[in-house]
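Figure S4 source data
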Amino acid sequence: MNDSFSYRHIDFVEPVKKAVNTHLRKVAKLLEGYAPDLINLKGHFDKHPRRTEFTCTLNLSLPTGTLHASAAAVDPENSARGAFCELETQIKKHRSLVRKDFQWKRKRVRIARALA
């Protein structure tokens, strides 16, 4: 996976990089089916100039589509957590649409009603 992150107006970058690396491992597990050189992740951290708010925006480019996630929080670690959680849910939904899981939905067996 090719990743690049930019940090704007953030003084303490090392704790943010640690949080990003833990989330990158989770995302890499979800994207094992794709070739690693075809996956591009671009992230941008920014501090709002007038408020104490950090925003994190993520753009994930896959061979089957592009996903975008963003989050804002009081500190950059929490904004990264929110953006990566949103990105993980989008990846799961995207993979189910690509696999066409909606066409293969199985009917549930209702054993409890049959026994009653």
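Figure S5 source data
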Amino acid sequence: MKNFIVAISLLGMLSSCTYNSYTVKDEMVKDVKQNEVKQDEKQTNMKKARAEMIKVCKEDNTICSFSRQNDIDHLILLFQNEKAMGTIKNDIAAIGSGFCISSNVLLIPSQFHIALREERLVRDFDCLTSTWNEWYAFEKQSSGRY
């Protein structure tokens, strides 16, 4: 009889554990579904913001340029010289980080570039690795664009 009571007690404890694990599982599933909805909303908002940024660059390519080369998106900010760039460094950082964060979240290989026309220099930022390269000289293209 004693063994029977112990067996019933163990069965009750196991049933309790099973019940509790399913209860926790249901709550976890709800949390995951809510997180998926939030992530979908974030991605949709990022896609819209990124698309708007690219649209603005394509409309006014005197200060900004966007291109896709070798399956990599390139956002280029163009400045007359270093002095002009220096006046809006905070804005440059906000634009670059916004572009790179959205690219990384949306899994789009991207690079952010800063170009100085008078100095004929470019500096690249790789969004995936979050690294800057050194300034380097660029050549004028045959179309007259930099």
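The two ends are 91 Å apart (CA to CA). The CA atoms of residues 57 and 64 lie 5 Å apart.
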